[in-house]
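Justification of computing resources. Each target in the renewal requires a structure prediction run like the one illustrated here; the chain below, 221 residues long, is used simply to show the kind of job we budget for.
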Amino acid sequence: MFNVCYACGLYRADKIVEQSEQPGYADAICPVCGHRHRFRQLPLLIVTGASGAGKSTICQQLAGEIDYAVMLDVDILWRPEFDRPETSYRDFFETWLRMAKNIAQAGRPVVLVGAGVGVPENLAPCVERRYVGAIHYLALVCADDVLATRLHSRPAWRQSSSDEYIEAQQQFNRWFQTRSIAPVIDLLDTTAQDIAESTAQVAVWIQSTVEAARKDSGSAT
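Resulting structure tokens:
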């Protein structure tokens, strides 16, 4: 287990992280005994957007097509235990950051696809945030009327056609479009694109972001 100190055996997620002289790596230092453990610190990529923007469909289209990163839909781990708005769903985000850091030890960065992970303020306070490198965001957006049409066309079991739900998603959609503070969230407008065009552009964004990160770190990973 990554959070268990190899020397003293204590479980400490709050290890001190220092950059290593080895590109693409950092050192995790046990705050109790001082044991230093080297690990891969790779960038984390996030594809986000409101419900109906096209996230899940694009994730399905790219499944098996990208071999230089691990692409995962965050909904695969969602359980009722995580539905804790009073904690801002902190356990859910901690779990995904912990997953990302462990997967990265195999040498490939992780691409998370989901809505909540696309809000930087949800990840910043997490203890596990220290173990991943730079986080890069791409939000899929579209016109409000197009978003409403997509949500109305979904099967009834998804419960996405109520006026309240659609309005909430349109507000979230506009939040991405009007956000002007750091960190930067790149935008891809899918309003007039078919799924093949949007998928191709997301693939280009992922590849270029991974390649730029490798170049910046001087790492071959």
